[in-house]
């Protein structure tokens, strides 16, 4: 009777014999739950009925196996941003969630899988939350990555629930929390096995738990007016050390909105909606949303293809090869790592352990990842590999010699890949007996942080193997970018003119810190001189030598001089800078010294060259 005459496309409301209403979100025509205007309008009508005839409780869950709610419908949001109606959309969502939060009965969100953005805000509008302990369960408010911050009540509610420091850390970084982390923060009340999720949610409806007194005290104390006035400047200072306000205004707007927010949630919601609506009109937000859609396009390239890869064999345990092997093991693949001697492999194992400890936290999860990464000095793992990745130094003859040695040992259906960063594959594939299975998988340094992998094609590559490579990149949580096999591919073709011009400026007497400061002021996360040191002067020199004739670029003498003197950068402890404890020791320079105007517009290339074109 309660829902008689109510026609829903996206929600399935039902009342059981105990008087508990279960609201199942299953957005029609979509593989994921995203909160569109239609979804919110239906929820508003359902909640309106519930407010007139309160049930024993309300349980909200997803009808999708993949997750709870992915967030707001960004395509729709992008349209609202273009026509200037974002404020109306934000205020409407706030009204719906506030009505949900004010229902005179217990309400529980049952979370399994991803719970992001607007989905988390909807869960925060419920009185309680329970999450499954499945590894896929992640809860977050990542809006800052889109140039805004939570605008449907998230920034108004979360600090009052878990305390301002923890809440602002989540929102300012955009990171997601595992179910266990969310419980420790106080974001969810219970964490249970997936099969007990709905049963536990019903228990919370029947016997709502009280929030611990200590947690309530922290939430209150960190949100008082004096606390906000003291903490806000500290947060601004910490944030300014990472990003510039003119490039990324959202984190600073979030801090200021929280600082001004009082005890009245209506006032906090008004501040939130106005600030987010203003941010949505900025070029930063528009461009970050564009980047998000570009990333989604890359993720979709594999389609439904299967990679058929279980065992990865990596040849070359240097910085790139070792870190590629570690990342594949982290993502669940069996990996064998080969190099000439154990002394070359050990540093890679040490870095792998550090990566696993950072990502996996507990010994129970770290041990299996370590077990998946095996040292293989003799190269016995090649015969069992489904994918072999060559990651030795940038020398065509050395790579070709390696392919002649290992290809006869590969399985007939195994894929052979090179991590070359610049050498054209049309040249390398000439020595490969089965070129149709040979391609480039060009990772970027540091492997654990850089999301992109270039899938490098050539004229004999089989389309099915390209699809396998795309699917493999998706499986290891990277973005695959198919590119032509011309020198430098895409990224280095763009990057090297910039780096070589910076090295040329250095050769002409401009201090490295001045060049780096100019680049950072422009908006680069790190300066080009520091970046060359990080990737290695030897790598920059070899890639530059490969690209120079192709793009019409000159190789600055400083690069060759440093390499000849054994100063390759961070990995040797000295390059353009000296390095201590992983950090460059930059010499003091006059803060008023700037890059001359004729060198400020980098990269500089010869008129009429391919780079200029």
Structural features:
six-stranded mixed beta sheet; 22 strands; 613 residues; alpha/beta; 25 helices; globular; eight-stranded mixed beta sheet; disordered C terminus
Percent range for β-strand residues: 5-15%
Please report the distance between the alpha carbons of the first and last residues: 70 Å
Total number of helices: 25
Question: Which stretches of 5+ consecutive residues score pLDDT under 50?
Answer: 600-613
Mean pLDDT: 93
- What assembly state would you assign to the polypeptide chains in this entry? single chain
Question: What's the short version?
Answer:
The chain is of the alpha/beta class. Helix 18 links the parallel strand 17 and strand 18.
Structural summary, described in words:
This protein is an alpha/beta fold. It contains 25 helices and 22 strands. The strands form five sheets. Strands 15-14-13-16-17-18-19-20 form an eight-stranded mixed beta sheet, sandwiched between helices. The chain starts with 10 loop residues before the first strand and ends in a 13-residue tail after the last helix. 46% of the residues are buried.
């Amino acid at each position: 009777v309660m829902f008689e005459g109510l026609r829903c496309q996206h929600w399935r409301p039902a009342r059981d014999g105990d008087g508990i209403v279960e609201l199942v979100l299953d957005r029609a025509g979509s593989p994921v739950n995203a909160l569109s205007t239609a979804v919110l309008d239906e929820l508003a009508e359902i909640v309106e009925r519930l407010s007139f005839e309160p049930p024993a409780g309300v349980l909200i869950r997803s009808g999708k196996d993949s997750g709870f709610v992915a967030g707001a419908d960004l395509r729709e949001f992008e349209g609202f941003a273009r026509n200037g109606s974002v404020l109306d959309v934000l205020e409407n969502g706030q009204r719906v969630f506030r009505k949900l939060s004010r229902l005179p009965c217990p309400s529980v969100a049952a979370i399994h899988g991803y719970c992001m953005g607007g989905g988390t805000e909807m869960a925060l509008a419920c009185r309680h939350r329970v999450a499954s302990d499945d590894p896929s369960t992640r809860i977050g408010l990542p809006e800052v990555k889109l140039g805004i911050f939570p605008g449907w009540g998230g920034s108004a509610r979360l600090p009052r629930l878990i305390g301002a420091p923890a809440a602002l850390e989540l929102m300012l970084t955009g990171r997601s929390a595992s179910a266990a982390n969310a419980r420790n923060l106080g974001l969810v009340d219970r964490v249970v096995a997936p099969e007990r999720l709905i049963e536990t949610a019903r228990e919370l409806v029947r016997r709502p738990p009280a929030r611990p007194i200590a947690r309530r005290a922290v939430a209150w104390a960190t949100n008082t007016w004096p606390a906000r006035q003291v903490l806000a400047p500290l947060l601004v200072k910490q944030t300014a050390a990472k990003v510039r306000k003119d490039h990324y205004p959202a984190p600073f707007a979030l801090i200021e909105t929280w600082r001004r927010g009082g005890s009245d949630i209506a006032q906090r919601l008004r501040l939130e909606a106005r600030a987010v609506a203003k941010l949505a009109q900025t070029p930063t937000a528009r461009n970050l949303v564009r980047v998000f859609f570009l990333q989604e396009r890359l993720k979709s390239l594999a389609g439904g293809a299967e990679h058929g890869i279980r065992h990865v064999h990596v040849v070359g345990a240097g910085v790139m090869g070792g870190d590629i092997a570690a990342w594949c093991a982290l993502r669940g693949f069996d990996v064998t790592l080969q190099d000439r001697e154990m002394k070359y492999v050990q540093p890679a194992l040490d870095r792998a352990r550090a990566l696993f400890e950072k990502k996996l936290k507990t010994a129970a999860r770290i041990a299996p990842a370590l077990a998946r990464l095996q040292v293989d000095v003799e190269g016995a793992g090649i015969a069992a590999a489904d994918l072999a990745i060559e990651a030795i130094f940038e020398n065509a003859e050395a790579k070709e010699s390696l392919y002649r040695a290992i290809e006869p040992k590969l399985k007939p259906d195994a894929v052979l890949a090179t991590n070359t960063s610049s050498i054209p594959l049309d040249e390398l594939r000439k020595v490969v007996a089965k070129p149709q299975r040979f391609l480039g998988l060009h990772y970027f340094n540091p492997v654990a942080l850089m999301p992109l992998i270039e899938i490098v094609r050539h004229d004999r590559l089989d389309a099915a193997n390209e699809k396998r490579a795309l699917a493999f990149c998706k499986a290891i949580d990277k973005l695959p970018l198919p590119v032509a096999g011309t020198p430098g591919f895409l990224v280095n073709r763009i990057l090297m003119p910039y780096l070589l011009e910076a090295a040329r400026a250095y050769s002409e007497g401009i201090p490295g810190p001045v060049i780096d400061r100019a680049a950072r002021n422009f908006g680069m996360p790190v300066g080009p001189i520091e970046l060359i040191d990080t990737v290695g002067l030897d790598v920059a020199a070899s890639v530059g030598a490969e690209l120079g004739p192709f793009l019409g670029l000159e190789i600055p003498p400083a690069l060759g001089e440093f390499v000849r003197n054994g100063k390759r950068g961070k990995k040797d402890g000295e390059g353009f800078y000296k390095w201590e404890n992983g950090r460059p020791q930059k010499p003091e320079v006059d803060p008023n010294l700037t890059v001359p105007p004729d060198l400020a517009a980098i990269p500089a290339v010869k008129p009429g060259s391919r780079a200029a074109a």
